[in-house]
Amino acid sequence: RKTKEKGNIEIVDIESDGEEKTKKEKNVGTKKMNQTSSDYSSIDFSCNKSTIDGKTWNFKISSWNVGGLKAWLKKDGLQFLKYENPDIFCLQETRCSESKLPPETKVDGYHAYWLMGDKEGYAGVGLYTKVKPLEVKYGLGIKEHDSEGRLITAEYDKFYLVVAYVPNAGRGLVTLPKRMKWDPELRKYLKQLGAKKPIILCGDMNVSHQSIDLANPKTNTRNAGFTQEERDGMTTLLKEGFVDTFRHLYPEKTGAYTFWTYMGNARSRNVGWRLDYFIVSERLKPQVCDSVIRSQVYGSDHCPITLLLHM
Amino acid sequence: RKTKEKGNIEIVDIESDGEEKTKKEKNVGTKKMNQTSSDYSSIDFSCNKSTIDGKTWNFKISSWNVGGLKAWLKKDGLQFLKYENPDIFCLQETRCSESKLPPETKVDGYHAYWLMGDKEGYAGVGLYTKVKPLEVKYGLGIKEHDSEGRLITAEYDKFYLVVAYVPNAGRGLVTLPKRMKWDPELRKYLKQLGAKKPIILCGDMNVSHQSIDLANPKTNTRNAGFTQEERDGMTTLLKEGFVDTFRHLYPEKTGAYTFWTYMGNARSRNVGWRLDYFIVSERLKPQVCDSVIRSQVYGSDHCPITLLLHM
DNA sequence: CATCTGATG
DNA sequence: CATCAGATG
To answer: Cystine design at B57: which of A262, A263, B176, B308 (Cβ 3.0–4.6 Å)?
Structure first.
């Protein structure tokens, strides 16, 4: 059903996350505070899983769409680094140019790399790493996309790490055409890169691959993040020699999401989407110990995810 | 000294209210909350003053630049009506079109009138009145200014009430030309109106008339609100048969301001400007009991002012 | 519902 | 240092 019109573009109502609205919720004067900080002490960050051949993890990578670095910092988002203590930490939607980075973004023990596009306050990705990469490259090598600050590649001894913030298809799918260009460009880029070393791709892929990956698949088939076009893009990527580590390890697990709209208390009701992934080259599969969703960690409308490897 | 350039316009540093900045105040992570609500119980709203010929007040008018009606409501601005209980209450900078007025703006015992311009979230004036006016007119009758929602005229039995939100001359005085058109138009309008009945003009005149009317006259002579041009406009108005009631009653009173920038804790240091006025036709002067500044009342960067009359 | 910018004051 | 709109998610 239609709620607004803007020019000739039909804007569909996705504000209820595809659920039917039964009441007209006016909420006058009932503005509530969302949960912003995490109770880290109650979260178990340990991991006793191992690889198929029984090797325990010795390398950890985390990723988080922070939805605005400056706001996330105020919500103590960096605390996550202390408790999770990953070797590599990838951030998406930093929305903060390097010159405006607050000083606390310098963290002892990590090298930091940042990429912003031309548009202020839009997109942007970042990378914290304990081991200095052999090389860091910015962007896909495609002008249209690289002006937006969506991808960093860090070359390590044994693999490439790619942080990505995939373009959102937008309200009314206005930017689905952009996305349809991005997806094959990314695949092409990864194919070239993968010829040299295995790849660990992480970040906000802005798609829930299958019905199991979101709470309301039926009502969201024409909304950004669950169109057939976007889903097909992910299917194609996975066919080209990549593994969705989480779904590989937990093929039947329901209710596992990494994003919840701020609207309608979606997070407390777990009305969410799995949009954030660790996707690795097939040949890295034997080294994966676990792929976990830190759904108890607050600080943005996404939660962090962590990959544990034996390297 | 110059802090920013924008195109060819030189933007002078008025963020310190004309004071010299001695320290580079970084204030990282020290975001403070401003005082937003008033302790009405500690404020004396009584008035024992009378007219020259000893008559006590029986009619009260208040005026307040609310700086955004919706935010002001959240800060309990309407509480002021209960404690002050004026016969007429005038608002400026409501920045709220009539269709978006929150329901609590309907107040028992008052008729309300609102005017917004074409630009959403900009300017706007309002009027609460216990006695229904004989007529309410919107605007000055000049297209350029009336598209901005800056003036309401209410005709009563014995006088005209004019609520005005005078155009700000802007950073770098970019809108001083607009102001220089407005001032004579307003005087012309008041002259016509005054031929029929005496006038009570109130609102944010966006000028401190004399040096006594602001904390930092020396450093603000080329800033909006204290240019010679704006001051001359007020001088001319007062020469044409109008009285600045506050300064008439308190010709020597210093530190009497109605506006303080939110920047640099100006209000707590009383680094302010007198920008809000009750200006009446000379022939109403004998009926004025008092003209007061409610500087203890919070809710915007301006405080309310009140005029007490014997009608 | 929340984040940003940019205009405005 | 605030408010608001509008874009974006």
So the answer is: B308
pLDDT at residue B98 is higher than 50: yes
DSSP string, B13-35: --TTTTPPP-S----TT-PPPPP
Q: How far is B104 from chain A (nearest CA, A)?
A: 10
Whether the predicted pLDDT of B238 surpasses 90: yes
Query: What is the C-alpha to C-alpha distance for residues A256 and B170, in angstroms, rounded to an integer?
Result: 52
Q: Which two tokens stand for residue B243?
A: 């009285």
In angstroms, the CA B130 to CA A164 distance is: 62
Query: What is the DSSP-derived secondary structure letter of residue B91?
Result: E
User: Which window residues (259-298, chain B) lie with Cβ within 7 Å of strand D?
Assistant: 261-264
**What H or E segment, with its residue span, contains residue B66?**
none
Per-residue model confidence (pLDDT) at position A30: 35
Answer yes or no: are the C-beta atoms of A17 and A261 closer than 8 Å.
Answer: yes
Q: Hey, what are B6's tokens?
A: 């924008």
How far B55 CA lies from chain A's nearest CA (Å)?
44
- SS3 label, residue A137: strand
Cα B273 to Cα A57: distance, rounded to the nearest angstrom: 65
Q: Cβ of A251 under 8 Å from any chain B Cβ?
A: no
Q: What's the whole-number mean pLDDT along residues B77-103?
A: 96
Written as six digits, the tokens of A105 are 């973004």
Q: Is the CB of A122 under 7 A from strand D?
A: yes
Specify burial of residue B40 (Cβ count, 10 A radius: 0-12, 13-18, 19+): middle
Write down the residue that tokens 């940042």 correspond to: A114
CB atoms within 10 A of CB B212: 16
